[in-house]
Amino acid sequence: MAVKTLQTVENALAVLEVVAELQPIGVSALARHMNMDKNTAQRILITLGASGYIQKQNHGAAWELTPRVLTLSNRVAVNLRKTAREQLEELSETIGETALLWQFTHVGPNMYATLLDKVDSKHDVKTTMEIGKRVHVRENSAETTNVRTLIDQFPTGESAWLRAANDDRPRYFRITPGHPNSIAMGSVIYDGPAQPIAAISIVGPIERIPPDRYNTVGEKTAAAARIISGI
To answer: Which of 15, 149, 194, 228 is most buried, judged by most C-beta within 10 A?
Structure first.
């Protein structure tokens, strides 16, 4: 028999996500946004506050995240680097270009990608980036449209690799990374069957990644992303 979920826990996690997205936010605004009883919203906020995950902004009425959430995020980043390291090394060796690992974060409606780890190409002439680099993943941008398009097509790991197993749409993106005469190709990493949390990509000079290599490079990044996702 399937074990039932705890609705109170699900509600608390949902509130935490909304606070992260809309902070600072008050009880009334939160209740309206979530279509939740105000007293229930207040009890959840107070509970999350007592647990140290949120706090009242400047001792006022609006709530915001605390550094404790960042601590959890940092632990996730460490685990992600460990999980992805082997795939980064193998991908760079196989393709012959720099392999990059990006973590997604959200601030309000904005999406960002931060470079967590990399394995540089062994070529004397190569494209590389500094770990910690943060880029805004914009919609309808020449540099990043295909990243968001891929996420829109496959919003979860289940939709990308399980539910649509026979779908022949590509699971990789191709972007212009901002470096002259360079191209990047990559794929989305999911939290198992759940939401996208990161991406793995290959970046190199366009003369070494011509159009006739797009499918090969893209499919290899997608295979690596799926392994890291654990699907």
So the answer is: 15
